[in-house]
From TrEMBL:
The keyword Hydrolase does not apply. It comes from Actinophytocola oryzae. The keyword Cytoplasm applies. This is Phosphate-specific transport system accessory protein PhoU. PANTHER family: PHOSPHATE-SPECIFIC TRANSPORT SYSTEM ACCESSORY PROTEIN PHOU.
Length: 221
C-alpha cells in the first residue's frame, strides 16, 4: 500500500511538472507572437490555454482524492497540499501567457511594442521561460538549492520591469498613452509570471524542509 501511494505522489509531481512545461511553452510562443506580430502563434497560445486549465483540474482532483482516501501525514501531507497550491500558480502562469497572446492578437497586424522597448520584452520572455523550465526541474527532482536559485532570476525580472517602467515615464516618451498602457500591462504580466514560478519552487522547499521560504526566523531560506 505504501509503495502504491508513493507512486501516486510521483504521478502528482509529474502532472505539476507537465503544467510547468505547458506554461513555459505558452509564454515562449506568446513572446514570439508579441515580438513578431505573429497572429498564428497568438491564436495557438489562446487555443491551448484550456489544456492548462484542464491540467489544473485533473491535478487538483488527484490531490483531493489522495487526501480523502489515504489521509496522508507529515511529508506526504505537505506534498499533496503543496501540489494544490502549485497547480493554482501554474494555471495563473498560463493565464498570463494568454494575456500576452491576446495583446498581440488585439493589435494585429500592427506591432504592440515600440521598437524602443522590444529588447526588454525579448529578455523578459527569456527569463520567464527559464524560470518555468527551472521550476519544472525543481518539481521533478525536489532540488532545494535550485529552488532557491530561482530568486536570482526573479530579481533579474524585477530589474527589467523597473527599468522598463522608467523608460515609459520619461518625459520624451514619443509613443503616446495607448502604447504606454500596453507596455505597462505587458510588463506586469511577465513580472507576475516570474513571481508565480518562484512561488511554485517555494512550495517544493516547503515539501522537503517543512518550512516555507521567506519567514523572518528562517535565515537560510
Amino acid at each position: 500500500m505504501r509503495e502504491a501511494y508513493q507512486v501516486e505522489l510521483g504521478q502528482l509531481a509529474d502532472e505539476l511538472a507537465n503544467m510547468c512545461a505547458m506554461a513555459g511553452t505558452a509564454m515562449e510562443l506568446a513572446t514570439r507572437a508579441l515580438l513578431e506580430a505573429d497572429l498564428g502563434l497568438a491564436e495557438q497560445v489562446i487555443g491551448d490555454d484550456a489544456k492548462i486549465d484542464d491540467a489544473r483540474s485533473a491535478c487538483e482532483e488527484h490531490a483531493y482524492a489522495l487526501l480523502a482516501l489515504q489521509a496522508p501525514v507529515a511529508t506526504d501531507l505537505r506534498t499533496v497540499l503543496a501540489a494544490i497550491h502549485a497547480a493554482e500558480s501554474l494555471e495563473r502562469m498560463g493565464d498570463l501567457a494568454l494575456h500576452v497572446a491576446k495583446a498581440a492578437r488585439r493589435r494585429h497586424p500592427n506591432p504592440v511594442l515600440p521598437e524602443q522597448v522590444r529588447p526588454y520584452f525579448a529578455e523578459m520572455g527569456r527569463v520567464a521561460v527559464e524560470l518555468a523550465r527551472s521550476a519544472e526541474s525543481v518539481i521533478l527532482n525536489q532540488d532545494v538549492e535550485k529552488a532557491r536559485s530561482l530568486e536570482e532570476a526573479d530579481d533579474e525580472m524585477d530589474d527589467l520591469h523597473r527599468h522598463l517602467f522608467s523608460v515609459i515615464m520619461e518625459k520624451d516618451w514619443p509613443h503616446g498613452v495607448a502604447a504606454a498602457v500596453d507596455v505597462t500591462l505587458l510588463g506586469r504580466f511577465y513580472e507576475r509570471f516570474a513571481d508565480h514560478a518562484v512561488s511554485v519552487a517555494k512550495r517544493v522547499v516547503f515539501v522537503v524542509t517543512g518550512r516555507m521560504p521567506g519567514y523572518a526566523d528562517d535565515d537560510e531560506l
